[in-house]
Design brief:
single chain, ATP hydrolysis activity, nucleotide-binding, binds adenosine-5'-diphosphate, six-stranded mixed β-sheet, alpha/beta, globular, ATP-binding, 6 strands, AAA+ ATPase domain-containing protein
Length: about 350
């Protein structure tokens, strides 16, 4: 779904261009790689400086797997988090939409950290920023750089920032950023991960000082592991907490409504909210999924074949379905972890 058809103005003569990339000639590239490179060429048919000498397969990987032209998340899809939404709108969306106003004293920071328990909407916020600011979204998990791309992570990082600079405005979302910019490894640090970290910081430094419209968002569940260099570059740090009771109610209603399954009364919703204290947004989604299976399971128990089952034969989802689902879906965040986030937020977070 991420593929964008190539549009070339010069008749598709990419022979000269590709032969300059990492010493490859056109013949050695497959069609997908050629198309990716074609799309990144300027009006003169030349590949931008930053992308020359990069391996086409890495550019292709970034364009096809990491880049998302239409992340398809809007603010309205995200429950609660009003503080984060307000900060992010002012700090990053307006500057991306109006770079002419946000310059000089108003020039925005280029690095944002979203920290908090897993499953609370950090990735959704990253996508919504890109969606609202009409920016291209790049998603990479830092742990994949250190595991899947062993020895090549550095090159992939260059390709990532290179392609992003050709696709401005751009939002680069680095999940689990702590595994890349952690303070733990300083001694006995593996040479390749040290190089990867250095390359990443160089790239960040590069666009931070320039006029490029690239925003880097780092997300982490372990902010306390980030080192000082990472904190310095991620100037705005927003705590993304567990959803409030209202936000949990909204998630339940919104998910059931989407499928036309919402028939609960206010008292039922209040009970569900009371029973789900400490559940993350993602836990709530799993809970709704499990509860919505209740009517189906019951109908099948009565002997109806799944192939024969009519939608009308199923009763609406009830509070009892949620009560059963609560036995299956337990909260994934322990309450004593929350203290660590709150402490770190007090010390390093952007509180207003
Ligand atoms: P994180 O990046 O913080 O680990 P995600 O943004 O990937 O979490 O959220 C995982 C899923 O949980 C989302 O796809 C969404 O369905 C649900 N979710 C989490 N937080 C929220 C929220 N605040 N509002 C609506 N849905 C949420």
């Amino acid at each position: 779904g991420n593929f964008i058809p190539p549009i070339r103005s010069n008749g598709g003569n990419s022979g000269n261009m590709t032969s300059r990339i990492a010493g490859k000639s056109d013949d050695t590239l497959d069609d997908t790689a050629k198309r990716c490179l074609d799309m990144l060429c300027g009006p003169d048919g030349e590949l931008p400086e930053k992308l020359r000498n990069l391996e086409p397969r890495l550019i292709e990987h970034v364009s096809n797997e990491i880049m998302d032209k239409d992340p398809n998340v809007r603010w309205d899809d995200i429950a609660g988090l009003d503080h984060a939404k307000k900060c992010v709108t002012e700090m990053v969306i307006w500057p991306l939409l109006r770079p002419d106003i946000f310059r000089g004293c108003r020039s925005p920071g280029k690095g944002l950290l979203l920290f908090g328990p897993p499953g609370t909407g950090k990735t959704m916020i990253g996508k919504a920023i890109a969606g609202e600011a009409k920016a291209t979204f790049f998603y990479i998990s830092a742990s994949s750089l250190t595991s899947k791309w062993i020895g090549e992570g550095e090159k992939l990082v260059r390709a990532l920032f290179g392609v992003a600079s050709c696709r401005q405005p751009a939002v680069i979302f680095v999940d689990e950023i702590d595994s890349l910019l952690s303070q733990r490894k300083s001694e006995g640090e593996h040479e390749s991960s040290r190089r990867l970290k250095t390359q990443f910081l160089i790239e960040m430094e590069g666009f931070d000082s320039g006029s490029e419209q690239i925003l880097l968002i780092g997300a982490t569940n372990r902010p306390q592991e980030l080192d000082e260099a990472a904190r310095r570059r991620l100037t705005k740090r927003l705590y993304i907490p567990l959803p409030s009771s209202e936000a949990r109610a909204w998630i339940v209603q919104n998910l059931l409504d989407k499928d036309g399954l919402f028939k609960l009364v206010k008292e039922d919703i209040d009970t569900i909210c009371r029973l789900t204290e400490g559940y993350s947004g993602s836990d709530m989604k799993n809970l709704v999924k499990d509860a919505s299976m209740g009517p189906l399971r019951e109908a099948l128990k009565q002997g109806i074949e799944i192939t024969e089952l009519k939608k009308e034969d199923m009763r609406p989802v009830t509070l009892q379905d949620f009560e059963h689902a609560l036995q299956e879906v337990r909260p994934s965040v322990s309450l004593n972890e929350l203290g660590t986030y709150e402490e770190w937020n007090k010390q390093f977070g952007s509180l207003s």
